[in-house]
Amino acid sequence: MSSQDIPEENLPAEQGTPHGAVKVADEENPFADPGLPPHEHRIQDIDERAAKRSERAVAFLFTLSMLATIGFIASFVSIPHDKSIYVFPIGHLNAMNFALGLTLGVALFTIGAGAVHWARTLMSDEEVADERHPIEASPEVRAKVHADFKQGAKESVIGRRKLIRNTMLGALTLVPLSGVVLLRDLGPLPGTKLRHTLWSKGKLLVNMNTNEPMRPSDVAVGSLTFAKPEGLEEHDEEFQNEIAKSALMIVRIQPENIKDKRELEWSHEGIVAYSKICTHVGCPISLYEQQTHHVLCPCHQSTFDLSDGARVIFGPAGHALPQLRIGVNDEGYLEALSDFEEPVGPAFWERG
């Protein structure tokens, strides 16, 4: 239904200058204002039933937002922080994080959708032209404001009452610290966790793909294998945090091709174990070139030479990849002989 189908007496009354009005160009004003196009009435402007439907739709969206907010609060209170769920096709997720994200997203989206629907269907859509005027104050007004400010500063005696001035500045300086203290409740301090991983003397190297302990015979020359510490499982609550520090790259190089003396001493029959975490921004390294023994971080192209202590030969990484000292136990399995001797991943202010 269009406005042309409605009798003239049922249409909303126009106010102000007609939208179709135009000015005629003349010698004094060769670029006349062409005016606004004729206003087209919406169905909600001429049919109260349609307006009621839009009103109910907006109210439904706002009500849905309220219910989602209640669901957000209920999820935060009732869902255990360590509970996980499977969501197809994403996979396993933390149940609380999923519920909080979903309910908060619905709450915010429905508020926005309701406001947009309200504005587009019920609020006036009539365009109004308004002439622009200078927004700066006149010289007289500016002079009066400056005079009033100086008079107020004089009457406040802030320049003469130094005790009041200094204590006020001290209070205004210290009060933001209360907000900084609240940040302490965001979580426990990290302590020395950034310096240590799950690796320790006697921990077996477990293949990430097969989930089985590794023997030297499992690692071929020129191959790249990823390993994790014995006992770390994917369903563990802290799996992501721990694997982000403990993931290993296992590479076998001919001993005569290893240039770094310490690397050769910490290896076993040419099998070397290096951190998989790039020392630039912590991306996982997964690209290996057999002939040169170079590994490449796919994020920013930092390149490390695994035959020469994993030193940086290209890219923004600041230091070499940490090496894990490994050996073989009595049963013939590869094991760690200690933890990393330096923090893995990107540098931080207490590194060393």
Brief write-up:
This protein has 352 residues and is of the alpha+beta class. Helix content is 32%, strand content 14%.
Textual characterization of the structure:
The chain is an alpha+beta fold and 352 residues long. The chain contains eight helices and 13 strands. A five-stranded antiparallel β-sheet has the order 3-4-5-6-11. A hairpin with a 6-residue loop joins strand 8 and strand 9. It starts with 42 loop residues before the first helix and ends in a 16-residue tail after the last strand.
Quaternary form: single chain
What percentage of amino acids are in beta strands?
Answer: 5-15%
State the order of secondary-structure elements, H for helix, E for strand: HHEEHHHHEEHEHEEEEEEEE
Calculate Rg over CA atoms.
Answer: 35 Å
Number of helices: 8
- Characterize the biggest β-sheet: 5 strands, antiparallel
Average of per-residue pLDDT values: 84
Helix/strand/pairing class, anyone?
Answer: alpha+beta
Strand order in the sheet with the most strands: 3-4-5-6-11
Low-confidence stretches: 14-21
Count all strands and give the number. Answer: 13
**Termini Cα gap:** 75 Å
Q: What is the percent of helical residues?
A: 25-40%
Shape: elongated
Please describe the topology of this protein.
Layout: H1 43-46, H2 48-78, E1 84-87, E2 91-94, H3 95-121, H4 139-155, H5 162-174, H6 177-182, E3 205-207, E4 224-229, H7 239-246, E5 248-252, H8 261-265, E6 271-275, E7 287-289, E8 294-296, E9 303-305, E10 311-314, E11 323-324, E12 326-328, E13 334-336
Antiparallel strand pairs: 1-2, 3-4, 4-5, 5-6, 6-11, 7-8, 8-9, 9-10, 12-13
Helix pairs in contact: 2-3
